[in-house]
């Protein structure tokens, strides 16, 4: 049974026990629907408390059920039935009450909450809108001003705020169930005003401001504005009409590719830190991390560990470089405080958890050391030779290399079973992707430790076997080959950027190169040429040789005004690359997109076939969390797979 019924005097306590998040799957709804009838008819029962087992109330409807038509009783049916119950129902909320879970609580006549509970309607994250009354009942309980950010802008409410707004009738400081029962036992048979009372229209200016705000926060996703329209429909046409329109919109959005993509990523991101083959392996405790190198990557990696509460020692070769690294770290924490992401006190605490050392000796007590020095094999080899001598035999040693073969780096390292590649993406304290690149000798315990750390840091870890560029940069290299071929054949690079921006990328590949710096790719091309690989002279080579390395030199593919990152068409760049630009007919926008997404998927299939990636989903996670692939498209593998099935 997933619902248990206990009697506390005249109060019935119903407990939903459907791990892991008490999702309101069909069988749970059916049992609850029957229990409304039973409890209404029971003369011994004066009130009902509804609670969740485990760490939360209810995490929502069961997202896993969304690929098939809803089964009865639907959640709206159940909520209407509870709302019409003869006996008063009290939702006792702890942990999370999200989506359908909060809608279920809104259908109850009262709500009490434990301290620290979190309530929200995050459906728009899944490309849908609340589909069981949230867009209608919440505004009628707490007002439009407070409800719209929850419904359409992903805002969560904690217990205190919920009490302040009237979403919660009481906060229970002691044991929640006891407090809820005591609250319910005192309820008379009078009812609070129905959650479906009319709402007065705040006028066009309110809706214009709300639409502008919601559209901006939506970042190209369609559900947030649809959620706002559902709220407004109920204001304009009454609650009944609002409930109908909300349900129609929810059912329609559920079948869109955008929602399928977002739900696909929802499950993929949660499964990523817990690969099946490591679920029974105990990770090592990591209480102190050393980071070698205080440059952009090293300071970002140190910040990522500090943001996860792990103490860090930052090591540099000389004091001035160490000071610069510590100053960069301090800047990152206080910038987060200035943006309001953390308090000043938290910024100070994060910085207090960082110590610095000159040289590597100070890292001897670390449980994990991450190397983030210059991308040169000999430099890295030397660092690991010293770490192998100075660090504890059980310390995990990791390289942040983005290109070099970890087997080469660890060539002379004793006990290579503790060695692993942890490829962070810049800025390392922001980007979620972490490519985990095991050495052939890496132990499963060290691998499990890497995945556990990724989870602790809120990162999306993806295991990659060893090839040039691992998964992400290998696919980036393929994109570069394709885009260069398009330019040579006559498609303007600015048209390629525009096409991909309209597809959903934040910026096109050429704008991206200008931001990252063309000289990095140029260096890799020159290194490949030095290895005897055939890398034909390309437009990028001509630009770098002409000193156009991107934003940092005021121009690359585009021109940039001083201190401004806005790309402007460049006659100079066009003249430099003219000898290599073809006179062929430029591709149309959809052809550009098809060609480039097709190339990404083609390289992804090769990566899968070679066993470099474990799954197509992992490849999509790399693209989404490392290279800005639009979430609403799911990833190159998801997209091409759906097209093939269409
Ligand atoms: N349905 C099905 N599975 C879910 C789920 C859900 N709603 N929420 C989580 N899971 C799975 C998840 O995939 C993972 O599976 C496991 O539970 C633990 O998740 C009608 C239409 C509740 C804050 O969007 O935010 O209601 O990998 O690692 O860190 O209007 O889960 O172990 O196999 O995230 O403790 C709206 C989504 C749904 C909330 C718990 N609700 N969930 O966090 O665990 S749509 C949401 C979360 C809806 C109605 C609409 C979090 C959590 P596995 P986890 P956690």
Describe the structure.
The chain is of the alpha/beta class and 646 residues long. The chain has 3 domains: 3-255, Alpha-Beta Complex (2-enoyl-CoA Hydratase, Chain A, domain 1), CATH 3.90.226; 276-458, Rossmann fold; 472-645, N-(1-d-carboxylethyl)-l-norvaline Dehydrogenase, domain 2. Helix content is 48%, strand content 12%. The protein is built from 26 helices and 17 strands. The strands form 3 sheets. The chain has an 8-stranded mixed β-sheet, with helices on both faces. Helix 16 links the parallel strand 14 and strand 15 (419-424). Helix 1 runs parallel beside helix 2 (75-83), helix 13 packs antiparallel against helix 14 (344-352) and helix 21 (518-530) crosses helix 22 (539-545). The longest helix is centred in the last third of the chain and has 21 residues, at 589-609. The radius of gyration is 28 Å and the shape is globular. It starts with a strand and ends with a helix. The model has no long low-confidence stretch (mean pLDDT 95). It binds (2S,3S)-3-hydroxy-2-methylbutanoyl-COA. (2S,3S)-3-hydroxy-2-methylbutanoyl-COA binds next to strand 5, helix 3 and helix 11.
Q: Which runs of at least 5 residues are low in confidence (pLDDT < 50)?
A: none
Tell me, briefly, the overall form.
Answer: globular
The class by helix and strand makeup works out as alpha/beta
Any guess at the CATH architecture of the largest domain? Answer: Alpha-Beta Complex
Helices, by number, come to 26
Lateral arrangement of strands in the main beta sheet: 12-11-10-13-14-15-16-17
Average of pLDDT: 95
| CATH topology group of the largest domain | 2-enoyl-CoA Hydratase, Chain A, domain 1
Strand-residue fraction? 5-15%
Number of strands: 17
